[in-house]
Structure formats: C-alpha cells, structure tokens
Amino acid sequence: MDAIGGSMESVVNSSAQPEPEGNHLSDFPWIDFAFFFTTTTLILTLNGTVLVVLAKIGVKKLKKSVHNVQILSLSVSDIMVGVSLIPMQVSFYAGEMTHLQCAVRCGVFMVAFMASMLHVCIICIDRWWVIYFKVTQTKTQFLPRCMLLITSTWTLAFVVEFIPLVLWRDSRAHVICSIGTIFGDFFNEAFAYLAFTHTSVLVCVTIFYCFIIVFIMKRRSKINVVQNETIQISISNNTGNGSGCAVNTTESPIPFRLPNFFSNDGIPACDSTKSTPHNKKKRSVVSNTNSCRSTVVRKSDAKQRRALKTIGLIVSFHVLCVGPLIILLFAEVISDDRASLTWHHAMFCLACLSSAINPLLYAFRVPEIRKTLLCKDDVDN
C-alpha cells in the first residue's frame, strides 16, 4: 500500500480485524506531519479562543453589548473543537478503545464542529434580519431572541450529528479512534450524510451573506438620499431667501420611505409662507435634527460595514477550510473507495483550522476585543 493513496482494506472489510498499531503507523510516513498539523491547530484553537473568552468575560464594556453573546457562544464551540482533538490525537498511542468511548469522543467533536458552523450561519441571519427589517431593539428585547438562537443552534447541531452516530456507528472496538474508522462498513451512508449537511450549512451561510451585501448596498443609496435632503435644507436655511426651503429634486433609485424628520415639530417639507423669526427658529431646529440623525445613520452604516467585513472573512475561511473535507467525503461516496487515514486526518485538521482562525479575526476586527488583548487603558472609557 502506498504512503498516501493506498486503500484501507482492513478498515473497509468488516470481517477483517484492525491491524496492530505499530504496523498501521508504519504505513504512514507523513503521520508526523499530521501530528504537527493537529497540534498546531489545537494550540491556536485553545489559546486564541481562551483569550477571546477571557477578554469578553472580564471587560465591562463587552458585557454591555448583547451582540457579543453570539460571539461568546461561537468561542465556546471553538474551544470544544480544540479540546475534542486531544483524545483523537492521543488515541494513536493509547491502545484499543471501546466503541462507546470512541463514539463519545467523536460525537463531541462532530457536535462542536457543526455548532461552530451554525453559529456563523445564525450571525449572518441575525445581521440580515436587523438590516432588512430595520430592527431597533433594546437590550431587554434583543437578549431573549439572541438566547433562543443560540439554544436552537446547539440543539440543531446535537440532533444533526446524533443521527449518523446512532444509525451507522460501528460497534467494534477501534485501535485508532477517528471519523474515518467509527462508521466501518457504513462509511458511504455516513459520509454522504455528513457531506450533505455541511454543504447545506455553507450554502446557507453564503446565501445570507450575499443578502447582507445587497441590503448594505441599498442602505448606502438610501443614506445618500438622506444626506442630499439634509444638505439642501441647510443651504436653504443659510440663504434666507423668503421661502426658507429648497425643493428636493433628487429621487431615490429604489423605493424607500424617508424618515419623518419633521415629526417633532409638525413642520411641512416646504413652507411657502413669509419667513419670520419664529419660522427661522423652527427651521434651525429641524436642520440640526436632520444633521444629527444623518450622522447617526452614517455611524450605524459604518458599524454595519465593519461587521460585514468581519463576517465575510469568517465565511471565507470556513469555505476554504471546510471545502476540501467536503470534496473528500463526496469523492469517497461517489467512487465507493476509502482514502487513507492520513488524508482523513489532514482534511479534518484543515477543517478545524477555521476554529483557530476565528479568535484571530475577533482580535483584529472587533475594536473592544483588540483593545482588551493589547491592554489598552481606554477600553472602559
């Protein structure tokens, strides 16, 4: 059997017993590389994610934002991914394991890995919901919905990954405990299921992220209309030409209900009466109100763009890291043949690398976390 592309007859054939551990490991000259890759992924996942969790728990400013609860839950799932890699790595040298021990260890890894992907999906859905429906909720209103999404994510991850472990798990003891050996002769059914579910999650994440991009672009065009309205009103107030109001000729390229800037004072959009000190005072108040609201909208849009870029990076790294694993699973199902365990371990380690990259993205993309990790003094200001 060749070092990488050889078939694993001892794993595929249900009547054959697993090879002794020494002989099995001698078939893989690149196994040290797989260990190095796994260890590197483990260290990055644990250390990077623990820093993020400590930063989010220890800083008062981070506690005030309920949106950080989603990132905190994602960090917990990333920690579980890193922790569940430890038994799989150690099991190469731990000797024969019972099928229950192997199932529990693989189950924790599968649930945590799926939960990490689903967290990215619900973050995209939540951002889309807020932008599309213009949701402006208080902390008290948002927290129950946020907790419901997080609970649903973990429940769905458990149910989705529990199905293959119940239906297609091999009941024999395994010398090497891994996703590549736990399903035995049912690897076709199990791998097809895993490939389908992971592909579905990635497709959902990509679709909702594209929706967010479309809505952000529309929001920018709406903000430009609001800014034009504010500029024209300010020019009208400065000229003091009697009517005190300029006629807006700019039309929005898309249907848009402009904010009612004058709801507080009941002043119409254009007053044709003679300019009086009282009217000038009202127009000055309206102009200041418009300017303040336009500034708030611009700041909100800037935050949405920053969040959009962060989510885009997370989605991109998930696709790049998980994509090769999905391709491998589909290839094995279609060809009805097994790749070597080295390829399996390498692809799973690459997929887990996304959990190690997430905390790095938080540290560089979220200002509060970046200031906390760098021990800035103005975090609590």
Automatic annotation (TrEMBL):
<feature type="region of interest" description="Disordered">
    <location>
        <begin position="1"/>
        <end position="20"/>
    </location>
</feature>
<feature type="transmembrane region" description="Helical">
    <location>
        <begin position="142"/>
        <end position="163"/>
    </location>
</feature>
<protein>
    <recommendedName>
        <fullName>G-protein coupled receptors family 1 profile domain-containing protein</fullName>
    </recommendedName>
</protein>
<keyword id="KW-0297">G-protein coupled receptor</keyword>
<feature type="transmembrane region" description="Helical">
    <location>
        <begin position="33"/>
        <end position="59"/>
    </location>
</feature>
<feature type="transmembrane region" description="Helical">
    <location>
        <begin position="307"/>
        <end position="331"/>
    </location>
</feature>
<keyword id="KW-0675">Receptor</keyword>
<feature type="transmembrane region" description="Helical">
    <location>
        <begin position="71"/>
        <end position="95"/>
    </location>
</feature>
<keyword id="KW-0472">Membrane</keyword>
<dbReference type="GO" id="GO:0004930">
    <property type="term" value="F:G protein-coupled receptor activity"/>
</dbReference>
<feature type="transmembrane region" description="Helical">
    <location>
        <begin position="343"/>
        <end position="364"/>
    </location>
</feature>
<dbReference type="GO" id="GO:0005886">
    <property type="term" value="C:plasma membrane"/>
</dbReference>
<feature type="transmembrane region" description="Helical">
    <location>
        <begin position="107"/>
        <end position="130"/>
    </location>
</feature>
<keyword id="KW-1133">Transmembrane helix</keyword>
<keyword id="KW-1003">Cell membrane</keyword>
<keyword id="KW-0807">Transducer</keyword>
<dbReference type="Pfam" id="PF00001">
    <property type="entry name" value="7tm_1"/>
</dbReference>
<dbReference type="InterPro" id="IPR017452">
    <property type="entry name" value="GPCR_Rhodpsn_7TM"/>
</dbReference>
<keyword id="KW-0325">Glycoprotein</keyword>
<feature type="transmembrane region" description="Helical">
    <location>
        <begin position="190"/>
        <end position="217"/>
    </location>
</feature>
<keyword id="KW-0812">Transmembrane</keyword>
<dbReference type="InterPro" id="IPR000276">
    <property type="entry name" value="GPCR_Rhodpsn"/>
</dbReference>
<comment type="similarity">
    <text>Belongs to the G-protein coupled receptor 1 family.</text>
</comment>
<feature type="domain" description="G-protein coupled receptors family 1 profile">
    <location>
        <begin position="48"/>
        <end position="362"/>
    </location>
</feature>
